[in-house]
Design goal:
With about 200 residues, the chain is of the alpha/beta class. The chain has 5 helices and 9 strands.
Length: about 200
């Protein structure tokens, strides 16, 4: 069980300050039902938020290899990816200890053996792995420098032709993040848009 009170009260904090209050949410994603254990101290604890939902519904997944769910929270993106692609190994990463604990619970709850959750900052927990796909609903409220680091450092952890996919709120940093993706990868396209969000996709050349 994660620590109950330590550090700032923010979902990007390593140790959320709020007391643990567990809950369960149900969502219909990519045509099938899912259940997720959630808690206070993590992002969008009462429902799968619109940005995450757009990413899940539109994400392009390789048939096999490694996929990274960056800033996984309680795990909806990684859980769905692992469910639909059994030959894909999904690694879910978050700095938030409570989020990682919840992601591990949800891996078990959804009976997955091709997913795991790791805690750490940026790419440190997966520094020795090479990914065929990186998916992220980035922690924009943690600051643009953090989001910039997620983008700029991504190519070093990706195989050739691997895809980086990130959902952003169109009016909050959308233009800047598109520019950062273009600079980091040399290409960027809009994979999907809706509900005030856009999913950008870039390919490592």
């Amino acid at each position: 069980m994660p620590k109950k009170s330590e550090g700032p009260n923010h979902y990007f904090a390593a140790y959320p300050k709020s007391k643990v209050k567990l809950g369960m949410i149900r969502a219909y994603l990519r045509g099938r039902p899912f259940e997720f254990v959630t808690s206070s101290g993590v992002f969008s604890k009462r429902r799968v938020d619109l940005g995450t939902r757009l990413l899940i519904e539109s994400m392009f997944l390789p048939e096999k290899g490694y996929a990274l769910d960056f800033g996984c929270g309680y795990g909806p993106v990684g859980i769905v990816a692992a469910t639909f692609n059994p030959s894909l190994r999904v690694i879910m990463v978050d700095v938030n200890e409570r989020a990682v604990w919840l992601a591990k619970q949800n891996i078990q709850h959804n009976s997955l053996d091709n997913a795991e959750a790791r805690r750490g900052y940026l790419y440190e927990p997966v520094k020795n792995l090479t990914f065929n796909c990186i998916l992220s609903n980035p922690p924009v409220s943690a600051g643009m420098e953090t989001v910039k680091a997620i983008i700029v450092e991504a190519p070093k952890h990706m195989a050739d032709k691997a895809c980086f996919q990130m959902v952003v709120r169109s009016k909050i940093g959308g233009k800047r993040l598109k520019t950062l993706l273009e600079e980091a990868f040399g290409n960027v396209e809009i994979l999907a848009r809706g509900s005030g969000y856009r999913v950008f996709i870039s390919e490592k050349q």
